[in-house]
Design a protein that fits this description.
- It is a single chain.
- The chain has about 220 residues and is α/β, with parallel strands linked by helices.
- It has a single domain (about 1-220), classed as 2-enoyl-CoA Hydratase, Chain A, domain 1, CATH 3.90.226.
- The protein has 10 helices and 9 strands.
- It has a 5-stranded parallel sheet, with helices on both faces.
- Helix 1 links the parallel strand 1 (about 1-5) and strand 2 (about 35-40).
- The chain is globular, with a radius of gyration of 16 Å.
- The termini are far apart.
Length: about 220
Amino acid sequence: MVTLNRGTTNAINRQLVDELTGTLRRIKGDSDARAAVLTSSNEKFFSIGLDIPELFGLTREDFGSFYRAFNRLCLDLYTLPKPLVAAITGHATAGGCVLALCCDYRFIAEGRKLMGLNEIKLGVPVPYPVDRMFRQLVGVRTARGVVDSGEFYLPEELIRMGMVDQVLPLEQVLPRSIEKIRLLGSYPHEAFQMIKRNRTETVEAEILGRLKKREEFFIECW
């Protein structure tokens, strides 16, 4: 289990990106690690997204380095050759929603747990990697509505749109997530790896083909 634990909001800065990247690499290289759950240490936030107050003070060069590392992390999550479930016990907004969307499955707690991509309201586009992943996941029309509006959505709306796979009582989110990865992890690893690769490789190739220019545009907007 991988637990986000940076204060209550789990705001994403360079340290969190680097630590999560390192953890994923260890999971990828550990033959005993058959699957993983990504969750939060608290019930208020899965992650609020990028740590804007901290990142706003960075130079263009330093922010560019952070943003490229964040996008690499998203691709690492998306292409991890093992099952990955997001156990969403609190709000997953902006960059926090991005992290959840990079996982294979998303289980969210019922009640007022908001999720969405509000980048347009901040004056920046949705990061290119998740834009491509999101369109594949929910379809072009639904993705267009979510990305263009910048709104946050409640669990009953999220399940309808296909942004999450299950809405559960809070106390069941983590146990059901663990149950899911144990099931998927019990299957032959090579078969799951190829099934996942078949789903992700075309999207990954499209992302890598345009990522540099899209990153430059995002950095300019920032």
